[in-house]
Amino acid sequence: MITELNSSEFYKIKHLTDDCRNIEAKAVASGVNPGRIYVDDADDIKAALLWIQGQSGYQLIGDAQSEAFRRELRLYMETYVRSEWAALQISAIEIGAADDPWEDVIQHMAGSSEINCDVQHVFMLNPMHSIAGSDGPKPAARMKLHADGETRVIRIDEALFKDSRLNHLSFVTDKINSFWTTVDAFLEHGLGCVVVHDEDIVSVCLSAFVEGSTHAVDIETLEGYRKQNYAALAAQAYMEQCNQAGIHPYWDCSPDNTGSIRLAQNIGLSLDFNYLVYWYTIS
Questions:
Q1: What is the pLDDT of residues 193-213, one digit of tens each?
Q2: What is the Cα gyration radius of the chain?
Q3: Paired residues of 189 in beta bridges
Q4: Which residues does residue 196 pair with via DSSP β-bridges, in sequence order?
Q5: How far apart are the C-alpha atoms of 38 and 6, rounded to whole Å?
Q6: Neighbours of 37 (CB within 10 A)
Q7: What pTM was computed for the model?
Q8: Burial zone of 91 (CB within 10 Å; 0-12 exposed, 13-18 middle, 19+ buried)
């Protein structure tokens, strides 16, 4: 019978996450990042559906032939979870899966809704490259990118949030809170930096999910400041932080996001693996 695990029971799916390459699932299962876990049988777990809060989506892991998931998952989600989709204003369900055997389970969940599918790329460090390079910008380095002001990179730490001179601090806290339970949890487990132009925070690059020494990267530049090299500066500084801390960066993006792919490659990452993402509208 399908059951939702309490957070104190998340360790019960470790045998499933050991074989999972997506660190978002591992980060939730280890309790580092927030999420929920549904299993096919609490006494004999063969498959799990994880709600990845930071992605506002699900991940399927384990045995795609799980009879409970193939027969009962749709009714369970309709009965116990659908009301939460409405509260979160979710109109479409997104589910990541390692390979296509999960399609039957997802079709069962979707019912009469049309299923869409695409490939997602994961880039990781190319061992032939050094992180950020010896000439890459260091955190807190100062450099001129524009004639009308000064641009600098600042590490995300407690001092950053106390600096009343900086504008757009809420941009950073909102970004952190989308992936982490609290800012303190991020400061304990993650790392990151912001790019500041004059006194405006214009770009942020940080650890979105953490599993051991692997950190999934999230990067965003405020609208109005894009295509001005700020994201590249933030990414290079973040990679230098990873290098100093012995962190392995994990860069997840869609095939049509050519800018993200180019940026990942420019900082020494290369394609490591692909996985599938399915989605369907809620009828």
A1: 999 999 999 999 999 999 999
A2: 20
A3: none
A4: 152, 201
A5: 9
A6: 24
A7: 0.90
A8: exposed
